[in-house]
């Protein structure tokens, strides 16, 4: 007991609170009030539950008595408050009516058979009470609206329920003929379905609407996240390096490219095709050297497993690196064309150019990484350059189309 | 002196372009949406309209439709931040005589405006690439062979533009005059605008989905 108390005090006296019977607002002994507080339900629901259970074999009354005995009375200062007799009378009336109904129809003799109905009723009550007020009123208005709208259907449904119920009760007298009662049960359920169909349909539509709204919100959130992660980030970075124009333009370019890809080229497979690979390589070199690289691609082809195209791409990367590092050109143009089985990539700059004959033999860049690599894989590389005229590297590779 | 009207819904961008344009260009007015653009073009009768593709009220294509539809001879140069195929092809087929993206330098833009004012076409490397791509896909039988395909020479010129060559460099490369290069580009523009290969539009839209 002591343990429980300390626990209760520690956790803000919520989860382990003991059930008490309050004096304030009680109708009989305060049991329903206390239980309602414990279960966070409306006391009216609890009271109706007790009434319902009492009608079924008197179980409610028994439960009430037991709870009364085991739960202590909440300490109360001063005069005990007056009971609300009118409410008590109302609940008694409901109980009496229910009892009369079951007695008249003979259902109370069903014994255990009545229990599911009681449980179902209590469940419905709790559901009703748990639903938020706005939704509850929309249920009610929706139901009444659809009833008004479909008067014929509603009348038909009610008729079916009545016929079914009468039939069910008539058949109840002759228990052996369960088949008849089953049949009537089906009719009852059918009638209920007819009544409830528009309401259920409305509920379904509302659910769909909610779902669509949620998807829209998720998309919005994704856009917001994207803008935050990239654009805002880059803007902040740009402010911090405002003194360095080269870095500013590099950041802006790379952000622009990312945004463009996201806007105009959704779900492009990173490196499945030549065009995609050329774009990626150009983007990487642009990022690391800070020189804008304009890429134009015409036609496309899947990358080949043997690696002829991979070699071409490596040579193209080397050509871009050379142009970015040594030419001094303000921008570089890359043009990749796939025509039938031939892949051609041009890398052009407007920089200072150089004398090809004067390049020493041991310079790996041009001779090895570009020309040598292309020739080893069965392609060709041509370099056109002159001092002051810029440089253009042309790579050609023939592949067999899959 | 070429008289230019700038149509763009971003004020900052309009003043930026104004500041960047060379001395050979006179900016006679600005407009910020379709309505004001149509009015300003009628009022100022500029030589060239710098036209933004994306604007409130229907965008650049709506301006083209209303102005050119009324029989005006004003020339348009489309200027956009987007280089999506459907925007580029759409505005060219709407009647613009050229397309450049907004990251173009001030000097290049001045050249492009002067070229459009003289009645020539202006193709960016990207646009040249799009045209090559669009005319390459020749699965459907063409209705008008003259309009629906490019000549060998036109193809060569476009390819050089896509490779980043200036008109002068193209002329030197192909041993022809700059004037001839311009003629070829104008002829490609005409085919692009008049060809009713439904493939063109379909290609442009499909490209977005790739």
UniProtKB/TrEMBL annotation, chain B:
Record keywords: DNA-binding, Phosphoprotein, Transcription, Transcription regulation
Organism lineage string: Bacteria, Bacillati, Actinomycetota, Actinomycetes, Streptosporangiales
4-aspartylphosphate found at: 52
SMART domains: HTH_LUXR (SM00421), REC (SM00448)
Domain Response regulatory, residue spans: 3-117
Keyword Transcription: yes
Transmembrane portions of the chain: none
Record protein name field: Response regulator
Classification via Pfam families: GerE, Response_reg
Protein origin, superkingdom: Bacteria
Location of the HTH luxR-type domain: 143-208
PANTHER family to which the protein is assigned, alphabetical: NITRATE_NITRITE RESPONSE REGULATOR PROTEIN NARP, TWO-COMPONENT RESPONSE REGULATOR
């Amino acid at each position: 007991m002591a343990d429980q108390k300390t626990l209760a005090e520690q956790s803000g006296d919520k989860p382990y609170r003991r059930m008490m019977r309050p004096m304030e607002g009680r109708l009989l002994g305060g049991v329903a009030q206390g239980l309602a507080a414990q279960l966070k339900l409306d006391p009216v629901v609890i009271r109706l539950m007790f009434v319902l259970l009492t009608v079924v074999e008197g179980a409610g009354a028994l439960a009430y008595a037991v709870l009364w005995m085991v739960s202590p009375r909440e300490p109360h200062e001063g005069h005990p408050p007056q009971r609300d007799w009118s409410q008590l009378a109302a609940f008694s009336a409901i109980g009496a009516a229910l009892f009369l109904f079951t007695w008249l129809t003979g259902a109370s003799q069903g014994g255990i058979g009545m229990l599911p109905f009681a449980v179902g009723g209590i469940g419905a009550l709790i559901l009703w009470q748990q639903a938020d007020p706005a939704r509850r009123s929309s249920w009610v208005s929706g139901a009444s609206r659809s009833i008004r709208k479909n008067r014929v259907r509603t009348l038909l449904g009610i008729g079916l329920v009545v016929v079914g119920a009468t039939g069910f009760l008539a058949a109840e007298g002759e228990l052996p003929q369960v088949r008849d009662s089953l049949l009537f049960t089906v009719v009852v359920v059918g009638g209920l379905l007819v009544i409830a169909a528009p309401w259920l349909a409305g509920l379904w539509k509302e659910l769909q609407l909610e779902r669509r709204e949620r998807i829209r919100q998720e998309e919005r959130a994704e856009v917001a996240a994207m803008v935050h992660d990239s654009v805002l980030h880059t803007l902040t970075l740009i402010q911090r390096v405002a003194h360095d124009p080269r870095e500013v333009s590099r950041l802006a370019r790379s952000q622009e490219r990312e945004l463009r890809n996201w806007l105009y080229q959704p779900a492009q497979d990173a490196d499945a095709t030549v065009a995609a690979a050329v774009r990626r390589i150009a983007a990487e070199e642009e990022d690391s050297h800070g020189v804008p690289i304009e890429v134009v691609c015409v036609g496309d082809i899947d990358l080949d497993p043997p690696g002829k195209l991979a070699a071409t791409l490596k040579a193209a990367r080397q050509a871009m690196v050379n142009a970015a590092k040594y030419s001094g050109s303000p921008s570089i143009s890359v043009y990749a064309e796939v025509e039938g089985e031939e892949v051609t990539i041009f890398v052009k700059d407007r920089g200072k150019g150089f004398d090809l004959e004067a390049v020493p033999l041991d310079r790996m860049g041009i001779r090895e990484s570009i020309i040598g690599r292309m020739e080893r894989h069965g392609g060709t590389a041509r370099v056109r350059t002159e001092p002051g005229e810029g440089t253009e590297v042309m790579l050609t590779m023939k592949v067999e189309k899959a | 002196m070429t008289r230019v009207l700038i149509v763009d819904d971003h004020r900052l961008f309009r003043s930026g372009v104004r500041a960047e344009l060379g001395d050979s260009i006179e900016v006679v007015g600005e407009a910020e949406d379709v309505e004001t653009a149509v009015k300003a073009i009628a009022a100022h009768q500029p030589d060239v309209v710098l036209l933004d593709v994306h604007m409130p009220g229907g965008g650049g294509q709506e301006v083209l439709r209303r102005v050119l539809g009324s029989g005006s001879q004003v020339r348009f140069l489309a200027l956009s931040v987007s280089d999506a195929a459907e925007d580029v092809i759409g505005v060219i087929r709407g009647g613009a005589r050229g397309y450049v993206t907004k990251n173009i330098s001030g000097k290049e833009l001045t050249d492009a405006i002067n070229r459009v004012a003289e009645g020539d076409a202006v193709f960016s490397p990207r646009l040249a690439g799009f045209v090559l791509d669009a005319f390459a896909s020749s699965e459907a039988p063409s209705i008008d062979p003259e309009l629906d395909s490019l000549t060998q020479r036109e193809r060569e010129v476009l390819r050089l533009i896509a490779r980043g060559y200036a008109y002068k460099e193209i002329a030197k490369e192909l041993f022809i005059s700059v004037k001839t290069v311009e003629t070829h580009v104008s002829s490609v523009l005409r085919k692009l605008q008049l060809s009713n290969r439904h493939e063109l539009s379909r290609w442009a839209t499909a490209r977005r989905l790739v």
